[in-house]
Amino acid sequence: MTDSSQSAAIPVVILVAGATASGKSDLAEKIADKFTGELVNADSMQVYRKMDIGTAKPSKESMARIPHHLFDIVDPDEEFTVADYSVAGRDVINSIITKGRQPVVVGGTGLYIRALFSGLADVPGADLQARSEYNELADKYGNGYLHDLLVRVDPVSAAKMHPNNRIRIIRALEVFNTSGRAISSIQHDHGFTNGWCRTVKIAIDVDRDELYERINRRVDLMIDGGLVEEVRSLLSMGYSAELKALSSIGYKEICSHLSGTICLAEAVNLIKVHSRRYAKRQLTWFKGDPEIKWFKVPIDSDEIWEFLTIATKKMIF
Q: In CA terms, which of 31, 93, 152, 213 is 20 to 30 Å from 196?
């Protein structure tokens, strides 16, 4: 088999990445239109049903016009892991390729994207007893206490995690507790190389001040669009505020407001603050990927079309 035929047998996937509120979804839709594509979600919150406003899902009109995959696939109380996403994403992409259409992956969840293209490190499964014990410690002494524990056993991972990111900190502690190895060491040994597909990666580069303004406006629009009512409805259906889905940005703050802990104005301000911090972490993650080609706002569509056309042809031929 020639090199060119080997290349042609490997799917070419376009990735549109970037920070929250940067305009990824709009750009991805335009790319799907231009390249006869279908969209594949890479946002860990948009997989949940009944959570539309706070996750900024594409409109029903957009979903009807262009095939969208891996949106609205699990209920808020269902477990959906990074491993589940990796398997589902590859299946969907191969299905799109079989139809002769272009897969366009869009989202800002770095772990999902890495798992989709490069697989997962061989880390131990969940240790529910240890997880419960760590949660009790965090409830008693604060999230910073757990972060300090992680610094002692895995300083590399601890340096990459916000001290209040309890879920990721506990997972890293679980892995060390079960295997005796730092999760950062296991991930380093894995290498995260991509062999099953070829990727053309682009991202939107928005000036930091403008990005934060966009985030603030989006949060205001979410509130005006009924975010409080959406969260109230979820709680009335019996979904617990302690669920992972409802502990995400936008939902946890409104849950606190509805429980009477904070006023609405404070909840809105916290959503903005937490969203800006999340955007900063996303940018740090994606800026660390040398394969991503960044396009500054305002977007020059012709420049992007030319880049994607040349890049995808090079990978195929």
A: 31
**Minimum mean pLDDT among 118-127, 172-181, 207-216, 287-296: which range?**
118-127
Residue 293, strand partner residues: 202
Separation between Cα atoms, residue 105 and residue 34, nearest integer Å = 15
Residues in Cβ contact with 138 at an 8 Å cutoff, skipping those fewer than 6 apart? 145, 146, 166, 170
Separation of CA 160 from chain center:
16
pLDDT tens track for 115-142: 999 887 666 777 888 888 999 999 999 9
Q: What is the DSSP letter of 246?
A: G
Q: Could you tell me which residues come within 8 angstroms of residue 51 by beta carbon, excluding any fewer than 6 positions away?
A: 45, 76, 230, 234, 245, 251
| Amino acid (1-letter code) at residue 89 | G
In angstroms, rounded to a whole number, what is the distance separating the alpha carbons of residues 166 and 73? 25
Burial, 114: exposed, middle or buried (Cβ in 10 Å; 0-12, 13-18, 19+)? buried
Distance of CA 279 to the CA centre of its chain: 11
Does the pLDDT value for residue 44 go beyond 70? Answer: yes
Long-range contacts of 142-149 (CB under 8 A, 24+ apart): 143/169, 146/170, 146/173, 149/173
Three-state secondary-structure class, residue 171: helix
Q: What is the pLDDT of residues 155-175, one digit of tens each?
A: 998 998 889 889 889 989 988
Domains of the chain, earliest start first: 3-119+192-316 (3.40.50.300), 128-190 (1.10.20.140)
Number of other residues whose CB lies within 10 A of the CB of residue 33: 12
User: In the chain, what are the helix, strand and coil shares in percent, each to the nearest 5?
Assistant: 55, 10, 30
- DSSP letter assigned to residue 109: -
Query: 290 near 201, Cβ under 8 Å?
Result: no
Provide the pLDDT confidence category of residue 6 given band limits of 50, 70 and 90.
very low
